[in-house]
Amino acid sequence: MSTAVLSPNMSVDGGAYKRKRSHSRSPDDIDGAPPASRRRSHSPPPKTHLDLPKVVDADPIRRAERERQLAVRMAAVELEKSEKPKDAVATQTDAKAEFAKLIGSRSGGVYMPPARLRALQAAASSDKSSPEYQRLSWDALRKSITGIVNRVNITNIKQVVPELFAENLIRGRGLFARSIMKAQAASLPFTPVFAALVAILNSKLPQVGELLLTRLISQFRRSFKRNDKIVCHSTTTFIAHLVNQAVAHEIIALQILVLLLERPTDDSIEIAVGFTREVGAYLAENSPKANATVFERFRAVLNEGSISHRVQYMIEVLMQVRKDKYKDNPILAEGLDLVDEDDQITHQIQLEEDLQVQEGLNIFKFDPKYVENEEKYKSIKAEILGDDSDEDEDGSEEDSEDGDEEAGKTQEAIEDRTETNLVNLRRVIYLTIMNALNYEEAVHKLLKVQIDEGQEIEMANMIIECCSQERSYSTFYGLIGERFCKLNRVWTECFEHAFGNYYTTIHRYETNRLRNIARFFGHLLATDSISWAVFECVKINEEDTTSSSRIFVKIMMGEMMESMGLKTLAERFKDEEVRRSCGAMFPMDVPKNTRFAINYFTSIGLGVVTEDMREYLQNAPKLIMEQRRAMLENESSSSSDSDSSTSDSSDSSESDSASESEPDTPPRRRRRSSTPPPRRRGRSDSRSPPPPRRGGVKPEPASPPSARNKPSNRRESPPPFRRGNGRDRSPSPMRRRDRSPYSPPPRPRHVRSRSPPPVKRDRDDGYDKRRRDDSRDRRRSPPPPRRSDRDRDEPPHMKRASSRDRGYDRRR
Fold first, then answer.
1. 73 and 4 in contact (C-beta within 8 Å)?
2. DSSP per position, 382-441
3. In sequence order, what are the beta bridge partners of 745?
4. Which DSSP letter does residue 306 get?
5. What is the pLDDT of residues 585-629, one digit of tens each?
6. Which of 64, 116, 149, 478 is found 20 to 30 A from 171 (Cα to Cα)?
7. Are strands 2-6 and 48-52 parallel, antiparallel or unpaired?
8. pLDDT higher for 128 or 681?
9. Where do the segments described as Disordered lie (predicted)?
């Protein structure tokens, strides 16, 4: 490394700095007076040593040149380092220069990066009354007003107005007028919205509306003189809607129409027709005579024929619009009648008067009372908006926390009974399902929907409702429900709860919707997406079912049978858990309900699931008898204890009465013998009247000879068919015993009742005679009445006769 010493006395070209030699003093100077001040020689500045890199070069001349150039560059770098403190002062000077440029420019100057602008604002915020700060706030006001005006529309106008009042519209009324005029000229369909916004501001700040109307009239006059059709049309449209909003008086509209119709041309008539369509309804209501005059002028122009056919057709269309009473051009559009009539302020400005446009309000001007004017507008803003912004800004953190707590309490107290959120949620779910290509996409999107806790059932209900609205069932909805049920237990419970709700209200749905809902739940049950315990609410009997519920179960079972198969379905219903849940579907408590369920399931093709019910129905009589017997035994066992004491006393009294009645037995036997047994009396009624009960005995009629001549035939056993015929004619329970050949002969009561007891030799003949009579009477007599207990005790002589009859039969 070579070391070079750079001295300020060294010239740039490398030559040595030669000091000038001082002139020698003359003798006069030495002898003269000494100088007033001694000259001091200035010491040279300190030398700066630069470490230069060694230059290696074979050529010594070229090496020297390169070293010289390197030394110059290094010296320039050192000089820049020494001049850095001067740059800070220059930066401040540059900032002031930029502020000066901003102040002197009219439109805000060139574009400035946001970072640099924030730096300038921070530098200027120290003094709010400075021109720099006022200029920055002016630019911010201009941008804010322009942005608010550009985004206003019919839906957000109520939210935009407070934001607009938050800006200083008194200071920036020129900016507002310019921005809204530009926005209206760029988008004519939004003219009613801009007019409504101006009407709201005019009701609180009339100077804003007056300035805008003045500039619009001035612009119309300039454009009319320049024959600028486009600007003239946009300006007249804005003025027409301001007249409709009662910001401008209708006289200005009439003056404009007179001016346009005074010397008719195609362009003027076209502008007049458009202006009349917008303001015609208001003029017809508030100035009918003037409106009629205007249309007379239109008619005269039409009759003159000095205009083109296109414009003539436009006048004819305007006439038709007037006949239709401006139904397509109302005075105020729906949703834009925002100012009360008492708050409206109407400006009456003439077309020909001198107008103060106040173009100076569009540019920045320094305000020496800026802070004071800002405070005044804050008070006006608080009065308009109804809140005090100063208190909100100056309030402490504690006050803000208290306000948040109170706001939270008020929000908790508010209850939305309009179900707006629920309707919006259902709309989102419906649109999500309809826009999905397949069920996987639908489930993926539905899971992203924000659902509050407790509203999960709405998701299930909306899926089922969308399914029911289809013309035919789509497996798309069944797969959605299946995927939801298998994702989370919460969705499974929701669909199970929905099954109960829809089954109980299924009678409210038409057939097509009922079919879709039934197949949807059939799919969920067949795939085990929901538990079969939901069948607890299904009761198959005549009382608890309707036609709709039976159709629902039929279609649901059909869907399950198609998916699972009849054999698998029947086996599943035989499972113990499923049987406990489906007890009401297959009732086995009352035979009537069981029979109804069997017939129902058999009719829908599920007879295989009714085997248990059929077995129960076969064994039902035995079970019922056993139940009744057990019930009777319980009743008898409960009553036996109470009757045991009374039975002993009754037995003793009966035995005493029996012993006392033994001596009187023969008379009682004679009295009973006078009356024949009911059975014999019933058989003899067909041939002869019964004997009277009072003891009178009538002579026994003689039996016909044919009956007497055939005793042998009567002793033989009759053929079987005769027994059958006799059984058909008299269904007496004792008849079979009398006809049997092995039964004892009938008791001879008729003989005993009409004569004393017969002798022994005549006993057989009387028996044969009675046998013949009884065989005839057996076919014709009605069943005998039940014998009393007194007749059941046979007298002793009848018992003896019975034993003799038995001996006769043995002899035969």
1. no
2. HHHHTS-HHHHHH--HHHHHHHHHHHHHHHHH----S-HHHHHHHHHHHHHHHH-SSHHH
3. none
4. -
5. 898 888 888 899 999 999 999 888 888 888 888 887 777 777 777
6. 116
7. antiparallel
8. 128
9. 1-61, 382-412, 631-812
Q: How far apart (Å, rounded) are the C-alpha atoms in residues 776 and 769?
A: 11
What is the C-alpha separation between 177 and 172, in angstroms, rounded? 9
SS3 string, 312-378, reads HHHHHHHHHHHHCCCCCCCCCCCCCCCCCHHHCCCECCCCCCCCCCCHHHHCCCCCCCHHHHHHHHH
Domain 420-585: CATH class, spelled out: mainly alpha
Q: Give bridge partners of residue 50 from the DSSP assignment.
A: 4
Res. 631 pLDDT band, cuts 50 70 90: confident
Give the H/E segment covering residue 114.
helix 114-124
Long-range CB contacts for residues 731-736, cutoff 8 Å, separation at least 24:
731/783, 732/679, 732/682, 732/781, 732/783, 732/784, 733/783, 734/679, 734/784, 735/778
Q: Kindly state the tokens that stand for 764.
A: 């057989």
**Which helix (DSSP H) or strand (DSSP E) does residue 772 occupy?**
helix 763-777
Return the ∠ at Cα 149 (arms to 148 and 151), rounded to 5°: 70
692 against 599, higher pLDDT: 599
Q: Which of 3-7, 125-129, 256-260 has the highest mean pLDDT?
A: 256-260
- Each residue of 99-111: pLDDT tens digit? 555 555 554 455 6
Task: Show Cβ contacts of residue 12 under 8 Å, excluding neighbours closer than 6 positions.
Answer: 72
Give the right CATH number for 131-378 from 3.40.50.1370, 1.25.40.180, 2.60.40.1080, 2.30.30.100.
Answer: 1.25.40.180
C-alpha dist (Å) from residue 303 to 124, 259, 294, 296, 566: 69, 19, 14, 10, 89
Cα separation, 391 vs 782, in Å, equals 117
Length of the chain: 812
pLDDT band at 259 (very low <50, low <70, confident <90, very high): very high
CA–CA separation, 192 vs 334, rounded Å?
A: 10
In contact, 254 and 218? CB cutoff 8 Å: no
| 575-607 as b/e: b if 16+ CB within 10 A | eeebeebbebbbbeeebebbbbbbebbeeeebe
Q: What is the pTM of this model?
A: 0.42
Per-residue pLDDT, 721: 42
Q: What is the DSSP letter of 776?
A: H
Going by C-alpha positions, the residue among 804, 775, 779 that lies closest to residue 716 is 775
CA distances from 397 to 393, 402, 408 (A): 10, 9, 16
Tell me which of 455-469, 600-614, 666-680 is least confident. Answer: 666-680
Give me the percent of the chain exceeding a pLDDT of 70. 64
The greatest distance separating any two alpha carbons of the chain, rounded to the nearest whole angstrom, comes to 229
Let me know: does 333 contact 300? Beta carbons within 8 Å: no
Domain ranges of the chain: 131-378, 420-585
Residue 345 CB neighbours (<10 A): 15
pLDDT-based confidence at residue 309 (cuts at 50, 70, 90): very high
What beta strand segments (E) does 476-595 contain? Answer: none
Residue found under tokens 């000095």: 306
